[in-house]
Design goal:
The strands form four sheets. Strands 1-5-2-8-9 form a five-stranded mixed β-sheet. A five-stranded antiparallel β-sheet has the order 12-13-11-15-16. A four-stranded antiparallel β-sheet has the order 4-3-6-7, with no helix packed on it. By secondary structure, the chain is mainly beta. It is built from four helices and 18 strands.
């Protein structure tokens, strides 16, 4: 199962233009409002606070944590990110973000030490309609500052789905929205989800069957079969959108390890229902 413990409920102080969207909104309500969450993906940064229009709304967001959604009317908001307790005058990110209707993630990426820290805003869809009963969507964000471009593959762990895929003609397989389907030595289908994603970029959300996978991050190659640098099991549920953040260091600087602890390359997930 995907580890959802990272979606820790954080203290949210009142009064901001956005209010906590505690996951109880209907799909129709979500589609009429702007919802945004914060993602901490800066490997050399301490916990951070997030300000919206001058008011602190999230405190103590740790590395590889995802805040709850905040919801409000579409429009422009001034977003500031600071080291926890430092105050808005010490912001390391201070930018205006325009949000339309939908679900957004505002990720802090880059490095604090070299001044490359920056915001990356992505939008996730809400799956609706009859087709959503069998599909998830998967999106990837490359937030590992010392990692080269990566491919993301997914090994299908469902024998029933593997049998169905093996029974399809090759010309049909190659036309699937996964773009590339091949089979490993164990007869399991390997789907290429992401091809050549570089640092600071997010892939387009991709629909996939809702089932059990092993998600693999690989060094990018023309055949999408490079060395695996991270691998995690994932049980994708129907009607849910998943964003996988590749973060941390392939070679963590010793100073960062001494000060902040483990910052090794890995994956963490955010979900939108």
């Amino acid at each position: 199962m995907i580890n959802t413990s990272r979606r820790t409920a954080l203290k949210v102080l009142g009064g901001g233009a956005l209010a906590v969207g505690a996951g109880t909104q209907t799909v129709a309500a979500q589609q009429q409002s702007a919802r945004v969450r914060a993602v901490h993906a800066v490997p050399d940064a301490p916990p951070v606070d997030v300000y919206l229009d001058g008011e602190v709304v999230i405190e103590g967001l740790e590395f590889q944590q995802v805040s709850p959604y905040l919801s409000g009317p579409p429009g422009s908001y001034q977003v500031a990110v600071t080291p926890t307790g430092a105050g808005q005058g010490q912001a390391v990110i201070d930018t205006e973000v325009t949000l339309e209707r939908g679900n957004y993630s505002l990720a802090a990426i880059g490095e604090l030490s070299d001044g490359s820290i920056q915001p990356l805003v992505t939008q996730s869809p809400i799956l609706t309609g009859q087709g959503s009963q069998a599909l998830s969507t998967v999106q990837a964000v490359h937030a590992a500052p010392d990692a080269p471009p990566v491919d993301v593959t997914a090994v299908v762990e469902s024998e029933q789905l593997n049998q169905r895929l093996r029974s399809l003609p090759q010309q049909v397989l190659m036309g699937l929205p996964m773009r590339v389907v091949r089979f490993n030595d164990d007869g399991k289908a390997v789907l290429t989800l992401i091809d050549g994603l570089s640092f600071g970029n997010a892939s387009e959300p991709l629909p996939v069957p809702a089932t059990n996978y092993t998600i693999q991050v690989r060094a990018a190659t023309p055949g999408n079969d490079g060395d695996i640098v991270a691998s995690v099991p994932a049980s994708l549920e129907a009607g849910v959108s998943y964003t996988a953040y590749a973060s941390g260091y392939l070679e963590p600087p010793q100073g960062v390890v001494d000060e902040l602890g483990n910052r090794d390359f890995g994956l963490f997930f955010a979900t939108t229902e």
